[in-house]
Design goal:
The complex is a heterodimer. The termini of chain A are far apart. In chain A, about 75% of the residues lie in helices and about 0% in strands. Chain A is mostly helical. In chain A, about 20% of the residues are buried. By secondary structure, chain B is mostly helical. Chain B has one domain: 3 helical TM bundles of succinate and fumarate reductases, CATH 1.20.1300. Helix content of chain B is about 85%, strand content about 0%. Chain B has 4 helices and no strands. Chain B starts with 5 loop residues before the first helix and ends with a helix. The relative contact order of chain B is 0.13. At the A-B interface, helix 1, helix 2 and helix 3 of A face helix 1, helix 2, helix 3 and helix 4 of B.
Chain lengths: ~120, ~110
């Protein structure tokens, strides 16, 4: 396909609107969740076997590195879930105006770290 | 999915999203009310008939949800062989997770 449209791909000077930031993070979080899924399911299956297996998983997840990974996973899940709820609202024609769209995009963007923080407090 | 209309994917993506949201909220509710989590309560949760049905539903939902999501994203950014390769990898990964998920939901280990 011969494409003669002008191109502007200077990533240093492209400024994404907040709605686009929320959207690309929705995608990235989704990808991260897919990659984390085998690990999470493996741990779940292992932890359900016997009390000893359960304790081993607890032990394994108690290191600071593992906790940080869990908190990152919580952010990915929270952001993806909130951005998804925003999409469902948009599908029902709720919050489609530009101002409302930006507002809910900010809410999603802020909600992810907030929920991850709450989870972190619970975890520690 | 390949060769199908976008509408089917669009609807499936939303139905499975709701299923997964419910599943996440149930798990979050469990964690919020069980601190620290003990083995008996943990195993009891996943052994409960209602939870088995919910887990099974979620396992099926995540298969479709992740496939549609990754198909859309990979089709946006990749071309040719790279795209086919990534999509094949995603399918293998998801099929593995699906079988593993059945094991958890149906309690082959419990």
């Amino acid at each position: 396909m011969t494409d003669r449209r002008p191109r502007f791909l200077d990533l240093r000077s492209i400024r994404l609107p907040v709605t686009a930031v929320t959207s690309i993070l929705h995608r990235l979080a989704g990808l991260a969740l897919l990659l984390g899924l085998p690990l999470a399911m493996g741990l779940l299956e292992y932890s359900l076997r016997t009390p000893e297996h359960f304790d081993a998983v607890r032990q394994g997840l108690s290191s600071p590195a593992a906790k940080l990974l869990l908190i990152a996973g919580c952010w990915a899940l929270s952001h993806h879930l909130l951005a998804g709820l925003r999409h469902l609202a948009l599908d029902m024609h709720l919050g489609e105006a530009r101002a409302a769209g930006r507002c809910t995009a900010w809410l999603v963007l802020a909600g992810g770290p907030l929920l991850a923080l709450l989870f972190g407090i619970w975890l520690w | 999915m390949v060769g199908a209309t976008g509408l089917r994917d669009w609807v499936l993506q939303r139905i499975t999203a709701v299923v997964l949201a419910v599943y996440v909220l149930v798990l979050a509710g469990f964690f919020a009310t069980h601190s620290p989590v003990r083995f008996d309560a943990w195993r009891g949760l996943f052994a409960a008939p209602a939870m088995r049905v919910l887990t099974l539903t979620a396992v099926i939902a995540v298969l479709f949800h992740a496939w549609i999501g990754l198909w859309v994203v990979s089709t946006d950014y990749l071309k040719g062989t790279a795209r086919i390769l990534v999509q094949a990898l995603v399918l293998v990964l998801l099929t593995g997770c699906f079988v593993w998920g059945l094991r958890i939901a149906l309690g082959a280990v419990g």
